[in-house]
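re the bet — no i am not wrong, look at it urself. input seq straight from the record:
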Amino acid sequence: MKKSHKSEKVNAAIRKALSEVFLYDMPLQDNLITITNVETAPDLSKSDVYITALKDVEKVAEELNQKQGYIGHLLSKRIKIRKIPMLKFIPVPSSTI
């Protein structure tokens, strides 16, 4: 399926804002998160956020999924879109990058 210009802009905005959230609002101790890709549904109901981390990416993704409501709140302060999607963090093993 071809991505529209609007969905690409929304994905880029979410990716940039989440990077800022992880850098300034809730940095993880002794770990670094990289957002590799964001895929948002056309109706903005959900976003799949693909992440990598220096240490134990599965554990980091699990922690972020537990805090997805709070992360969504922080995200809403950084970007202005009609509806903040429900976030799902998906770990990407470092070996596949």
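see?? The longest strand covers residues 33-40. told u. also The beta strands are 33-40, 46-53, 86-91. so pay up
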